[in-house]
Amino acid sequence: xxxxxxxxxxxxxxxxxxxxxxxxxxxxxxxxxxxxxxxxxxxxxxxxxxxxxxxxxxxxxxxxxxxxxxxxxxxxxxxxxxxxxxxxxxxxxxxxxxxxxxxxxxxxxxxxxxxxxxxxxxxxxxxxxxxxxxxxxxxxxxxxxxxxxxxxxxxxxxxxxxxxxxxxxxx
Length: 171
Known about the structure:
It is a single chain. This protein is α+β, with helices and mostly antiparallel strands. It is built from 7 helices and 5 strands, in the order E-E-H-E-H-H-H-H-H-E-E-H. It has helices at residues 30-47, 64-78, 82-91, 98-107, 112-120, 125-137, 159-170; strands at residues 11-13, 19-25, 51-57, 145-148, 151-154. A 5-stranded mixed sheet has the order 1-3-2-4-5. The radius of gyration is 15 Å and the shape is globular.
């Protein structure tokens, strides 16, 4: 039986939730933005007390913008602002150049010298690569891929698809 690890990545929801949602995502993917805007808020609203939602990076390793955004999100997380930075990245998924990532750090009110050092030194390159390797080992091949406990849903789907799987885990 496949056992999905949430690793030590940031989470939303109930720390004691009985259903683990683990999303492997790429900030450069438009369907990631759609999932976070259209699906996730509804799932958290309907099932919130039962859920623990974790985001794990699964960037396109051939796309420097995608990898850079993933590493930058980890640098923001180091300052306790992962989710704020994460949301900005999703709002601007087509603008992920190094200068744009620095602008988002300012917008998020990060400590800029600390962020810049973290980002330029690629402090979290190994962490991002490990998330990707974990995703590969779980059969992730596209983003978004959401695991509801250990059940995989690949690609962007309707709310009803996620609800059916979620409810099978709850009841």
